Every structure is written in C-alpha cells, then in structure tokens.
C-alpha cells in the first residue's frame, strides 16, 4: 500500500487494542459518499432548473420556490388594485382587474426561470417585468390616460415654475429671475408609469417641472440673440428714398421664444413708419402744381394719391428684423381707389404728378393733355353747370378707366335717372360719374357756358378733339382740376 492509499484508508482499531487493515471497507464507504454527493448535486441542479430562487419576483409578484406553471397560475389569479400614488398622495383608484396572463404566456415565464438560474440556491432579490401576449389595454391605455388627465387637472391649481429669460426692455437687455413651481412634470411621470404597468399599486416619485435658471445655456443663447438683434440695420426703401432703420433705435422691447426666435414689440417700428408716411405720402394732401401758364398753385388730392398701409408695413419691417434681413421695399400702398388702392406711388417727378396728366382749368374752361412731359392737345371745354351746383369737382383725380363707345346715364342730384345718351369716348375720373366725353348735342361752347348751361359735372369736349384727348388719356394717371 502506498502512502496515498494509507492516508485514505487508515487503520481500524480492534476491541482488544489491536488494529487490522480496513482498506476494503473504507473504499466502499468513500464510493458510497461520492454517489450520495453526486445524487445530492443532481437533485439540487434539477430543483434549481425547475424552481425560481426565493427572492425572484415577476411584476412585483413573488414567485420564489415555484415552477414556471405555478408562477403563471399565480400571475393569472393575482388581482391588481389599480391605485396610483404620487409620493404619499393617492390620485387614482380604479376597479380591480387581473393581469391578463394566459397559457400562451408560459414560454416567456420559462425564459425568466432559465435566466434567473443559479447553480446553488440564491437569496439575491431579482425582479422581472413581463407583459402578457394579449395584454389588457386598460392599464396601458385607458388608465394611463386617466393618470395623465388627473395630473394635468391638478397642475391647473398648482403654481407654475417661472423660467429665467433674457429680454430687451426699454432698450436694455435684462435677465429675469427664475422661480420654482409646484406643477408636476407629467411627461416624466408617465414614463415612470410605463415601467410599472403590472404593479398592483403604482407608486410614482414626485417629479416637478424644473424652471430654466439664470446661468443656463438657454438664457445665454437668448442674450446672444438679442445682442445680435440690436446690431442689425434694415434698409427700408420708400419710392426713391432709403431709410436706414437701426434696431437699437426702433426696437426697445423684444423677447426670444422657446425655439430661439426673436419676437419684437412693433410699437416703436410703427411710430417710425408713421413718421415716414407723413413725410412721403400724398394721400389727402395738397399737391404743388405748375400750371400751363407757369404759375404754381396748390390742389387738394382727391381720388389720386397714396399712403403706406402703416400696420402692414410695420409687420413687414418687424419680420425683416426677426429674420435677419437687411433690406426691404415698401409694398403695401393704400388710397381712394375702388378697392382701396393708391395711385401715384411710382411717380416722383413734378411733385408726384409726373409728366403724363390732364389739366383742367374751370376758370378758363380749357384742358391741356400732357404725355411724358409734352403737350399733346389743348382745347376748349364746358364743365359742370355752376348755377345748379353741378360744378365739376376740383382736386387731383385719376382716370378710372376708358370705354369707347359708351352709354351715359344722367340724373339730377339725388334723383332718378333723367336721361341716357351714347357717346363715342368716355373716360371717368370720379366715383360719382364725372369724366371726359364728347358732346355732339352741345351747341353752346362759349367760355362762360358752364355758368348756366353747363353739364351735370362732366367735362364736355368738342367731338373733333375728343378722339385725340381720349387716345392720350392714360388710365390711373392724374387729372388736375382747379
């Protein structure tokens, strides 16, 4: 027997104090013990492979020591109380429901059993989340919506947080202070809810909407945006003149939206546009007009003239600053046109009258038609009857339209139509029916005929001259009557 064998077997003492060799018996004992150990290990391994560890939970339900079948049965019979808490406050208590597990969920339970397996029993706590194959929509949709609605309703009575922000106030950039609020962060709480779909009681830790702080990157970017705004200049063109509008001069109040876009208080811009409009517009103003004789007179603008639509132009300039544009032209002009349109904006020569116009002298009973600065024709006319108050209206008008031939309808002031007559040429300049036309029926063309034998307000023109007058009258061009 070698030393290794002696150490394993040893000697067996006898009753008389003698010893005998017992190697065969000890070999048998050792072999039996090994078999027992193998069987014991096999038993433990089998148990571990078919049972959950003691501290294993599925959807917060303890399944320790259970087989997969037993665990599924427990999940199938477990009742959910459907209560929701935020911190210590219960905000919802719905009717009890079951989790909705069925036999087809057994393979998933077995996967969890396999994944939590350890060779020796473990008391380490492990929790697993399992959604039934045919999940009940109550928890995932209906009840979640109820939680959302409840939180939003609660927020209405809770103090909202106040974000710090950079603002332009009275021309200076300031940083407003942030203040914490009490409103819940609904979006984050719903995400926490999603993680607890199948817990009987759902406990959500209070999460609140956080205010933006003064030293945040957001506020610093807002401040940078406003500084860039104050450095902008918009070149604003009205007719042939350009006005340099500096943001630092026409913007005193502005803020930055959450998507980092500038919002401007337009009041100061509007004041500037009104100032420009007062300087440049001709609507309802007196025109300085040089007559055929060379004398300069003042004639009130009536139908002819234009003005800036101050509100629309203000909005256009505001948008230019907000978008960072550096030049724009006026594009919103109003006046006394039939649709509120203004005329003469594109004309700057001859004090806004331009070189193409009709001149009518009531005193001289004569007209002069100019085309691009050149006299085309001058002729005697008869204007509105003075004795009956049908005088042709003085002022600066414009040719509304031209029609050849045309049927004219005459009427007494405020009365019914008293006559209809056809003319070869018709070019009205007032909305109430005054205009140029030929008058073949007229016999009296004397220079004083208008006093007692004048028209109903139109400018009667001799038939031989009216064709040339008509051909050289231009639609929307001025008609100066004085």
TrEMBL record:
<dbReference type="InterPro" id="IPR005490">
    <property type="entry name" value="LD_TPept_cat_dom"/>
</dbReference>
<keyword id="KW-0961">Cell wall biogenesis/degradation</keyword>
<dbReference type="Pfam" id="PF03734">
    <property type="entry name" value="YkuD"/>
</dbReference>
<dbReference type="InterPro" id="IPR038063">
    <property type="entry name" value="Transpep_catalytic_dom"/>
</dbReference>
<feature type="active site" description="Nucleophile">
    <location>
        <position position="458"/>
    </location>
</feature>
<keyword id="KW-0573">Peptidoglycan synthesis</keyword>
<comment type="pathway">
    <text>Cell wall biogenesis; peptidoglycan biosynthesis.</text>
</comment>
<dbReference type="GO" id="GO:0071555">
    <property type="term" value="P:cell wall organization"/>
</dbReference>
<dbReference type="GO" id="GO:0008360">
    <property type="term" value="P:regulation of cell shape"/>
</dbReference>
<dbReference type="Pfam" id="PF12229">
    <property type="entry name" value="PG_binding_4"/>
</dbReference>
<dbReference type="InterPro" id="IPR050979">
    <property type="entry name" value="LD-transpeptidase"/>
</dbReference>
<dbReference type="GO" id="GO:0018104">
    <property type="term" value="P:peptidoglycan-protein cross-linking"/>
</dbReference>
<keyword id="KW-0472">Membrane</keyword>
<dbReference type="InterPro" id="IPR022029">
    <property type="entry name" value="YoaR-like_PG-bd"/>
</dbReference>
<keyword id="KW-0812">Transmembrane</keyword>
<feature type="active site" description="Proton donor/acceptor">
    <location>
        <position position="437"/>
    </location>
</feature>
<dbReference type="GO" id="GO:0005576">
    <property type="term" value="C:extracellular region"/>
</dbReference>
<dbReference type="GO" id="GO:0016740">
    <property type="term" value="F:transferase activity"/>
</dbReference>
<keyword id="KW-1133">Transmembrane helix</keyword>
<dbReference type="InterPro" id="IPR038054">
    <property type="entry name" value="LD_TPept-like_central_sf"/>
</dbReference>
<dbReference type="GO" id="GO:0071972">
    <property type="term" value="F:peptidoglycan L,D-transpeptidase activity"/>
</dbReference>
<feature type="domain" description="L,D-TPase catalytic">
    <location>
        <begin position="356"/>
        <end position="482"/>
    </location>
</feature>
<keyword id="KW-0808">Transferase</keyword>
<keyword id="KW-0133">Cell shape</keyword>
<feature type="transmembrane region" description="Helical">
    <location>
        <begin position="25"/>
        <end position="47"/>
    </location>
</feature>
<protein>
    <submittedName>
        <fullName>L,D-transpeptidase/peptidoglycan binding protein</fullName>
    </submittedName>
</protein>
